[in-house]
């Protein structure tokens, strides 16, 4: 059963629940939601049962080289050569012709970009999108609500949604806190409440709502398409965290470190015959007391250890006497036998680490060729130049849909502030090419 909202009804929320301020009769419907299995603390929806999911995830990622470098690579690929303004025109042959527009020709936009360090804001929000599939831009309005004066990024890991209003099926607010605990409530002095407006709203609807409700600051979360989630995305690239691959790979260096510290590192077995002492010291040996004999044995052992240990002593020999025992058999006074380390850990875990890194990079969506990493079981190299060019070209084409999400920020700024509606935004892309076509080996495209 759905509800039909008319003139005075206002929707605002996230996800598939569109947020609208209607100036006349509307035809948007919203069904009340009955939630099950959602963990909350009062009004706040926990992110994970302990409300610590972002922290737990990042703690593991920060220890994982493959994950950290892959996320860093995707952030750089998403941003490309940076945000650009453009205008599209139709050429004589009917094809679209896109021309870069200089910020110097748009003084108001240039002032806004400089005031808000917009390129930094984009890189920060892209970082959250590539890590959590969710970005949280915050918009601050002028006193008369006519313009968006300021834009900044709210760190996704420090944000939480308010529980959906069960009567309307919409999310009305979000909450910011630097250090979330499982028991942190919306009433805490360390928590800030920020109104949420859905990114399906038009700029006109956002402006009308803010004027009516005297809202000077709001957030409009952007996210990659949800599948069946209600609140927080469950990115497919987090699968290697949820299934344990990251922790398996992270455990290998620690295992090897402790093994190296605690293993019994013995290279030689030294055999010393009792005949050595009786022949060396003759009748005096029997006159020595026990402590004297122990001292002589220890001094000999220490001398042999010092003789065999260290790189400087490599290749040295030990001279000793050879004699016949009482049975007429030849006996070596001292015998040094090299030991074979059959239980050495050298190489142990490396195959698991290589397979795990491949799983991690595959889940995050980075071709190992682009990272200079060989495929497990394949050639031990990072691939050829043509492999890298093709991989980069494929990656850039796949990032088109991601960049469309990021550009929702630009579209709201343009439309709310009344900037030229023909101005489009995009991120310049770097395509690798061959040196015979371009001496720099790169080519920028819009």
Low-confidence stretches: 1-29, 375-381, 432-437
Helix fraction bin: 25-40%
SS field, number of helical segments: 15
Mean pLDDT across the residues is: 81
State the total count of DSSP E strands. 20
Strand content: 15-25%
Ends apart, CA distance between termini: 46 Å
| Derived structural class | alpha+beta
Rounded to the nearest angstrom, the radius of gyration is 35 Å
- Shape assignment: elongated
Domain tally: 2
Biggest β-sheet, characterized?
Answer: 4 strands, antiparallel
Q: What do you see in this structure?
A:
- This protein has 446 residues and is of the alpha+beta class.
- The protein has two domains: 3-235 and 387-445, no CATH class; 264-338, no CATH class.
- Helix content is 37%, strand content 18%.
- It contains 15 helices and 20 strands.
- It has helices at 53-61, 65-79, 107-116, 118-132, 203-213, 239-242, 245-262, 274-281, 284-287, 290-308, 350-364, 368-371, 385-398, 400-406, 408-417, and strands spanning 3-4, 29-30, 40-41, 44-45, 83-90, 96-101, 134-141, 148-154, 159-161, 173-176, 192-195, 217-219, 222-223, 268-272, 322-324, 330-332, 334-338, 424-427, 429-432, 442-445.
- The strands form eight sheets. Strands 7, 8, 12 and 13 form a four-stranded antiparallel beta sheet that branches. The protein has a three-stranded antiparallel beta sheet with strand order 6-5-18, with no helix packed on it. The chain has a three-stranded antiparallel beta sheet with strand order 9-10-11, with no helix packed on it.
- Helix 2 (65-79) packs across helix 4 (118-132), helix 3 crosses helix 4 (118-132) and helix 5 crosses helix 15.
- The two termini are 46 Å apart.
- Residues 1-29, 375-381 and 432-437 have low confidence and may be disordered.
